[in-house]
Amino acid sequence: MFHWGWMVDDHEMLALLKKTHQLKDESLFVKQLRQLQMVTQRQKEQAEAINEGLVQRGLVRYVGTSFHSRAAARRWMRNLDVMMLRYNIARRDIEEDIVPFLYGEKERDPGIVVFNVAHEGQYHFHIPPPGYPSGQYVPSIPDCYRFALSNSWVDLVLTGPRSRQEIDLALSAIEQGPLSEAEKEALCRYGAFYQQQIHAIS
After folding, report:
1. What is the model's pTM?
2. Tens digit of each residue's pLDDT (9 = 90 or more) over 133-143
3. What structural domains does the chain harbor?
4. Average pLDDT in the chain
5. Which of 12, 70, 86, 176 could be disulfide-bonded to 97 (CB atoms 3.0-4.6 Å)?
């Protein structure tokens, strides 16, 4: 699989470097960039042409792209074999912004790879956030994997195990199969609380 990284030889490095330096401060440009989070039409056309050429020449079998912009993901999804998206119990926005736009057929939809499943930024879900009532349910990292994989539209979860024990725990959890509705609701409640606390801290 060729995973698109957005950089092509035709990009003007000097212009890119100037724009990069602008990203160091809270300028109007940065605020507008954060609001738009979109790909220019020229870049989109270049990427589509390169993707098509790679496949036609038999150099790759599949073409994929990772996204932090859900708007860009929606625009590109019909032209990709694989999409990589951020998804977790505190950040479930792709359920509304992406999933309704899928065909719902594995043969027609791109493969969906999700990442950041067990954490949101520096905050790890198996560690309760400040203000969370003691003695209440706290999900494990494998619970977070099961949460993502319980969705029929998720094909793969990226993981970051640090030991053989963590791999065994993840595999053991996956063998349990999809979450029950009660388990999923508990994780969603925890995720919503976590998201509120993250915003309060930030």
Report:
1. 0.73
2. 999 999 999 99
3. 2-201 (3.20.20.100)
4. 79
5. 70
pLDDT at 15: 52
* Long-range Cβ contact pairs of 71-76 (< 8 A, separation 24 or more): 71/37, 71/38, 71/97, 72/37, 72/38, 72/39, 73/97, 73/98, 74/98, 74/101, 75/38, 75/39, 75/44, 76/39, 76/44
44 band by pLDDT with thresholds 50, 70 and 90: low
Contacts of 187 (CB under 8 A, 6+ apart): 89, 139, 143, 144, 147, 179
Structure tokens at 157: 């979860």
Q: Has residue 101 got a pLDDT over 90?
A: yes
| Residues paired with residue 111 on neighbouring β-strands, in sequence order | 82
The vertex-88 CA angle with 82 and 94, nearest 5°, equals 55
